[in-house]
Amino acid sequence: MPVFFQHQINESTRLGIWKIEETEEFFKNNVPQHRDVTHPRKRLQHLAGRFLLQFLAPDFPYELIQIAETRKPFLSNEKYHFSISHCGDYAAAIISKNRRVGIDIEISKQKIGRISEKFLSREEHAIFNIQHSAPDPPFPAPDYLKLTLLWSAKEAVFKWYGEGGVDFREDIHLLKQHEGPGTVDCFFSKTTTNLTIHHRYFESLVLDWVLS
To answer: How far apart are the C-alpha atoms of 205 and 39, rounded to whole Å?
Structure first.
């Protein structure tokens, strides 16, 4: 069973990463496909994410998943709050019985250096000691990983919010990284909410999640 990582956050909240090694037929025999996905790789990721929900909570009613206008999946009866993410051969999910949640998983790539100014403010470049413009030659490898972490952190907040219309530079403010516990302090201005974003590194794979 390719469970890459799992973490029991508290008695009602759990997350996991699934390394996708199965065929599409395996997932289709276990979970329904809730929307038309034409690209084979994306369809496999879509199915794996829903399969992971059931792995995390065997009573998860995946057949009742609905898709909001913002494309956020949800359960109308709110039996569980949940969030799904996927990249490459990995799917990640977080579920909670009583907390709003968001999760994001990313593989660090050099191209993240070309778009840092689109999602990080000047203040954030300074706080996290990242050059405001990509140099030539490009960022050193550790900065790619840090940039991926910060992008993923904002994606997790975006999914936690779930209502769309978020400007990553203007609405999500990353304030400080705490290396020991693996967290980033965040202020989300659209709801004037202080959040703690948690993260884990798995070599070039980055996982971020948030709950409130």
So the answer is: 23
Band (187; pLDDT cuts 50, 70, 90): very high
Tokens representing 189?
Answer: 């201005």
The answer to whether residue 22 sits within a structural domain is yes
Sign of the alpha-carbon torsion through 132, 134, 140, 142: positive
Spatial CA neighbour of 9 closest among 198, 205, 207, 176: 198
- Secondary structure element (H or E) that encloses residue 46, with its range: helix 40-56
Residues 51 and 138 in one domain: no
Domain count, the chain: 2
How does DSSP classify residue 91? E
Q: Can you read off the two tokens belonging to residue 36? A: 């038309």
Q: Does residue 137 carry a pLDDT above 50?
A: no
**Domain identity same for 140 and 193:** yes
Report if pTM > 0.85: yes
Range(s) of the domain holding residue 98 = 3-103
Residue 184's CATH number? 3.90.470.20
Residue 178's beta-bridge partner residues? 183
